[in-house]
Amino acid sequence: MRLRVLGCSGAEFPGHSPSAFLIDDSLLLDAGTVGAVLSEEEQWRIKDILVTHSHLDHIRGIPLLADNIVVSGISRTVQVLGTTEVLAALGSHLMNGVIWPDFTRIPTPEAPVLRYQPITVEAPFQVGDYEVLACPVNHPVPAVGYRVSRGGASLLYTGDTGPTARIWELAGELAALIVEVSFPSEMEEIALLTGHLTPALLGIELAKLPKLPSRILITHLKPQYYDRIKDELEALRLPGVELLRGGNVYDL
């Protein structure tokens, strides 16, 4: 699997874009950043989007991608996969005909640009060539992480989470882990309140894994605290830890 980082920040500033990870040019993990990074041709290659939760910084690229496809005149349906709660939020609060058109009915209900596909947590399912497992995580809204496997390699993406348990129990052998750290450790109170991790909390979470993956890729840093989080993570001396940057590419 080839992993391309489109966005990996916990806020938006110049040079810092929200979460989106592209696998093999066709499968998106979250869609906080799409059209601002990908060319037209690259956008048309997207077939499926796995959404972890309904917060804006993880979904905002979906309606804009749909609009780009319609305007282009090409015939394409992108499958948006998530829990029933996440898909209901997309339909009720975002692409509801008020905030944005309902692209599950455009250009026609029979051949829409977007098709919602509900998933079942903790039940493996197939998306193209990938086997996917959705794992529950701890966040203020219903949220999951995803384990994506292909060709003997597995990637685990936590999405947004505070201290949690089940995802680590389901992790298995991993080629790489994408895990969030949003705040420095002195801001643990707000991290816990908002369902996020600090470097100190990350150390506790990783201890729940029977075996650490060789790559631990850190995402969702608040840019205002980037240097402090970086220093604290280095102090943990965990092997394989790397802070993600938009544009990074990894072969797993």
Explain this structure.
There is one protein chain. With 252 residues, the protein is of the alpha/beta class. The protein is 25% helix and 25% strand. The mean pLDDT is 97. It has 8 helices and 14 strands.
Brief descriptors of the model:
seven-stranded mixed sheet, alpha/beta, 252 residues
Summarize the structure.
The chain is α/β, with parallel strands linked by helices and 252 residues long. It has helices at residues 40-44, 56-59, 61-72, 84-94, 166-169, 188-194, 199-206, 226-236; strands spanning 2-7, 20-23, 27-29, 48-50, 78-82, 114-118, 125-127, 130-136, 144-150, 153-157, 176-180, 215-219, 241-243, 249-251.
List the helices and strands and how they pair.
Blueprint: E1 2-7, E2 20-23, E3 27-29, H1 40-44, E4 48-50, H2 56-59, H3 61-72, E5 78-82, H4 84-94, E6 114-118, E7 125-127, E8 130-136, E9 144-150, E10 153-157, H5 166-169, E11 176-180, H6 188-194, H7 199-206, E12 215-219, H8 226-236, E13 241-243, E14 249-251
Parallel strand pairs: 3-4, 4-5, 5-6, 10-11, 11-12, 12-13
Antiparallel strand pairs: 1-2, 1-14, 2-3, 7-8, 8-9, 9-10
With strands numbered from the N-terminus, the spatial order across the biggest sheet is 6-5-4-3-2-1-14
Poorly predicted segments? none
Secondary-structure element string: EEEHEHHEHEEEEEHEHHEHEE
| Class based on secondary structure composition and strand pairing | alpha/beta
Q: For the terminal residues, how far apart are their CA atoms?
A: 5 Å
- Write down the oligomeric state: single chain
Mean pLDDT: 97
The tally of beta strands, per DSSP, is: 14
Strand content: 25-35%
- Describe the largest sheet: 7 strands, mixed
Q: How large is the count of helical segments?
A: 8
Outline: globular
Helix share, percent: 10-25%
Radius of gyration using CA atoms only:
17 Å
